[in-house]
Amino acid sequence: MKWNAPAHLRRFAALALLPLLAVPQSFGWGDVGHRMINRLAAESLPSDVPAFLRSPEAASEIEYLGPEPDRWRSPAEAELSTEQAPDHFIDLEYADMIGTLPRRRYDFIAALTAAEITHPDFARQLEPEHVGFQPYITNEVWERLKAAMRAYRELNSKHEDTKPVEAAILFYAGWLGHYVGDGSMPLHTSRDYNGWVEKDNPNGYTTDHTIHSQFESAFVSANLKPEDVKPLISPVRPVTDEWDAYMAYLRHSNSLVEKVYQLDKQQGFIGAGTPEAKQFTAERLAAGASELRDLIDSAWIESGKPVPQWHDHAPAAAMSAKPMSGE
User: Fold this and answer.
1) Which range of residues forms the domain containing residue 295?
2) Residue 112 lies in a domain
3) CA-CA distance, 314 to 112, in Å (whole number)?
């Protein structure tokens, strides 16, 4: 039905939509892939984590939460959708223009802002919301998980009720899984996220804006099952430096961007696809499940270590921050 509102209202509505159009709307792996990654990670947790985390009920909760951040990407919650959309990706080609990526989100934003001045030809591409914050949200949610696990340890040691913090741990683990899953999908690490954008395209890769959803959603939903992925999950390998480990994981994903385009050119993701495309996709889903399992395990291990004193490690800004309520 045609809208016959006055012209000035139509213009206002169009302007209101601009923030929603400014950030690419890409959904890593779709509902099926995210659920699969989270479920397989939960089911492969090692015995050193608390028993409640290894229960069937926990696996079901963590699985359900796999697509949770994509449920926040709706026109019904326009501000939330716009604000958190950049957390799902990072264009490493542009991010690397600032050099070594800093570990803190706001330092990254400041570095990108400075780079906009020194690289005026890339000013728009270097805007933080266009580069993306994928490793930053992952690190931040992982630290939330670690903090909740520390609280669990304290309550458990006092023989107090741990049910509320167990619920928090499951939520953080499931939430974390979404971004770890996004990171295993190569196109979430690249400016070529939905069609080859580089002017030099000698191999004739697709420039259509369909490759992203065709690969991660349609192909996965039609062809990938947990039994295809589970045998490919790697042995447990907890990490001590979450940031470095996760950046290595992202860079490996990024190294596979062109492989996605090669498989697409061979019609690998159409219909039943090709055996090579199916194997590749299963490997990427398994990489996400393996990384998530290792990060959950690492959060548990790290939560048992002594907490550093603020004056040893806190940045100057934190030292001068306003006191929390009750201080």
Assistant:
1) 35-69+132-194+213-305
2) no
3) 23
